Fold this sequence. Notes:
alpha+beta; 21 strands; disordered N terminus
Amino acid sequence: MIISFPGLRQKKELGEVVSGLTRRQHASNEQRLKMQKCLIVSKVTRYEYEKHSHDYIEDSELERILRKRGSDYDAIINTHREQKAFEENVAKSFKEMGLQVEMASRLTYNDELINWCDVVVPCGGDGTFLLAASRVRDANKPVIGFNSAPHKSVGRLCLPTWCSNDVKGALQALKEGRFTWMRRSRIRTTITSEPKLLDTITPVDLHTLHYCRYPPVSNPDDTPEPSKSSAFDTQESNPNPTLATKVLPFLALNEVFIGESVTSRVSLLRLQIDNGQWTHTKSSGLCVTTGTGSTSWHYSINCLRTHSVLELMKILGEDFNINMDTSLEKARQVTERYNQKLMFPPDSEYLAYSVREYITFEEWPAPRGLRVRDRAAAVRVRSHCTDAGLVVDGSVSFPFNDGTEALLEIHPEDSLMTVHMDDTLPY
């Protein structure tokens, strides 16, 4: 989700808070893009979702059900056809260049296909890109996305709009190396719990509400050794030798959210930021984000609105006799300045965390032991919830109930390789 403010969208699109900050590498100075084997990850359309949810009933019966529900069936069908036509055009363009192509959807995307291909090509929006990226653990396997509906969505993570309108031209530019390499940091999640609980943890695909069809957790032996030491002393933070530890098979490109599944229920979580003290919190949940995700949910949680800033400025002027310009334009400038500071580079090795609607009985604004929003090298969370989930990129949820612990960190070897291309035709 992208939250827009006057004058801010232009800055995001021009630099995505990346220009001049992200360490990009020209393709001519590093390896050329290898793309002989291409895996296209398709978007699951509303039509496909409904067909799957209704056990693939006849279209006439599905139409009756959806129209009764008040859905625009004609629009659903048209959007589906447009999406599939776009995917077929991308596949055709690849094949005409002599490249091998395989297709996968959310329901068929698996490690075997990922290992087979040289490049993963999601065709959809940012949601499809996040899905495609979540399973790619090889930091040298690029994920390059096409926005299938640039007239409807921004598609920040995908190639620029001209690439969607000229797929062959985009492929030629990629082949000739007219792009810059780009690394996006991702969050690695390590779960600690009783062995019997870890053995039964199964992720749920929130888009289909079905259990995922792959092993729920991975053995730490299968995970590359970190290139930096953990921000925590493992022995001290996990003194109980009867507990088991495993690494989740999903890497979060945007964020990890932890909280009760019923949103009206208070989430009881204990937090440790870096090597700080443990703090008990009551809130609406915890959001831990990467630099890439700092323009998304993290931004919408923490951003200020112009009218709120204007009210504060008027209070300072009227009640505290502070002489200042309290015009709407000045309030917009202050708001934009504050909100820009919420965002940070996609390749940052730091996380940002936000405790949503933190319930505190301490004197505000300094509750004891924890800032409700800050950056950190790592975050450790211990659950005291009854029916909570640990959600990766809003897509896959793992049960995270009382006694379960999670360590959220960024390691360079977990970064996602992708590309950046100019917003204008490179001709």
